[in-house]
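Example record for the data management plan.
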Amino acid sequence: RRTGQALCINTEGNVVELLGQIPGDEKYWGGGLLAPNGCIYFRPESAGRVLCINTEDDAVELLGPKVPGRDFVYGGGGILAPNGRIYFVPSCAGRVMCINTEDDVVELLEPAIPIGGPTKGVLAPNGRIYFP
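Corresponding structural encoding:
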């Protein structure tokens, strides 16, 4: 079982630290995305909310509304778009998640899409994100 904390490795001194507290059984098995604001946003793959780690002060917090469902809710990849927002595609959630990295507002976009959606996307030169 994990410790309920985020792991940070300082490569300058090979120092390992545990940061913050991740409440309850929140599970963040997927990768995160580093935004221009210096924060890393982890998708709620088997968790209820987005996990945010601020790399400036090592603060750890949960963001946004509680997402219904518990398993592989956002198992797909995320994309950092030119508008500074992060988009996570749902696997079992039904709606695309959008994180505004300027104010840490998390919203679930309309319309709902069929559950079991795509997992990997590509940001095209036209600023749109495409999924197979």
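Summary line stored alongside the record: The mean pLDDT is 85.
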